[in-house]
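pipeline: protein-struct stage 2 | run 1193 | Ribonuclease Z
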Amino acid sequence: MLDCGEGAQIQLLKYRVPFSSLHRIFISHMHGDHCLGLPGLLSTMALQKLTFPMHIYGPKGIADFVDYIVRTFCTEEELRFHVHEIDHKAAPMVVFEDKSITVEAIPLKHRMPTVGYLFREKSLLKALDRSSADFYGVPVYWFNRIKSGADFITEDGIVIPNSRLTHPSRKPYSYAYISDTAYSPSIVPHIRGVDLLYHEATFEKSLKERAAKTFHSTTEDAGKIAAAAEVGHLLIGHYSARYSRSIDMERLRSEAAEHHPRTIAANEGMFLDLKELRNQLQ
C-alpha cells in the first residue's frame, strides 16, 4: 500500500482487498491525508489475529507515530510490526528488495520530510521454448538452469546454445509514485522511462503561485516532469477540493496532456494494468 489516508480500511473492504494480502505500507510523509488511516487499519488487522510481519516505511516521524498506534491499540501484536524510518536527506536509496522487486525512496520537495517511491521489477528469467526443449530431449530438471541462461549439454557432450531453447522475456515493469511535492526536475533521472508515473497535480496551471506557496505541483508541472522523464504513461491525482466534477478532472488531464499526451486522471476505484498500458505504446 502506498500512503494510508483516513478510511483506508473501509476502502479495502469496499474493493474486496483481503487484509491478509497487505504486508508492506509505504508512507510518503506525515500529513494526515497520507497517514491517518494507519490507526484504524493496524488495529483492525490486530483484531483479526493476523500473524505475518507487517513492515511500514516512511520518513522522519513514522517511527514515533506507529509506536504510539501499537502501544495504544495493538499491545498484544507489537512484535509483528516493523518500522523502517527513511532518511529523506540521504535518499535516493533502496529501502526494500526481494527476489522479484526493488523499492527505492526518492526525496521530494515539500513542507516536511517527504519521499516518493520507485518500484522496479527485477530482470525476468528467459521464457523456455518447450517445443525446442522437447526436440533436444531436455530433462525437466534442466529447465530452470536454461531459463537462467545456461546452455544445455546432452549426454553425448553436445552443447545446445541457450538461444535455441529460449525466448527473450518481457521488459520488467516499473512504477513511480511521486506524492506531494513542488516542481522538482531533480527527480527526472531517477524515474526516467518508467511504465507509469503517478505525479500529484493539486492545482491547475493558472494557480502556479498558489502551488509554489504550498509546495505542491500544477498539472503543467506534472506534464513537464513526465515528458522530461520520457515515461510511458502519466497518472495525475491529489486534486484540490475545488475540483470535484468530472468536467474538472478532464480539464486537469488536458492541461497535463499538453506536455505529455498519454495522461490519465486518477479517480476513486480506478484499476490500471501495466501490461495493457505498455501495449498501448506499440
